[in-house]
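Each field is set out as follows.
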Amino acid sequence: MGNFLYVAAKEKIISLIENNKIKLNQRLPSERTLSKQLGFSRMTIKRALNSLVEDHVLTRHPGDGTYLLHEKYSGRIDTGDDSPWSLSQTIKIKGGIPSSETKSFKLVYDIPLLTDIFPKYTEFYELIRIRKFDDIAFSIQKSYFPFRLFEDAHRYDFSKISLYDYMGFKNLRPDLFHQKIKTCTQDSDPLLNNFNMDSNKLILDVEYLGYTRPDCLVEYTQSYFDSDQVDFRIEIPYTPNN
């Protein structure tokens, strides 16, 4: 990941947000200014800003400039529609310390669920991570992506880097998502015992299908969230009655 300079530039920009150097409703400095301030080329800064816009951390106002999309709240973690896609970035913006523990990263073969979802493929990477906020588990993610699309993924440590940054480097970052939301209990999966919560409480269970375009599926992820720590927001289209 050392050659992903724009990822390092993203981290520097996130640090500016953490340290209140970038605030809500305050226009970000120009690419030229950020380039001089942070020590990266304008091309690298441009790519970092574009990536943070894709991550739903920043937003662009045509003819005006680039702004922080979300206020720096403390407390519960925002996720779901229009929230930052990177959980680590969300936590850093809130002033917390994110960490990720990889429980499993391996190749799996001929799993009926996956071959039904990805009919063209039979080999998949399985990546299971426990996501933490100040060392407390708030999410457990099981991600699956085709080996043939990401053959070199085994070279990277996804406890330290973003899966979506890696996929973006391969020009296969998903930007269209279909999701199914339900609840479950802690006894649904042994992994859920990593949550420090009352066993009688419901856990949010969200399944994602990530596409680069409508006919190109690149990711299937099942995410569990501790409902005591996370606000999950969804947008429901309004259809007026005729």
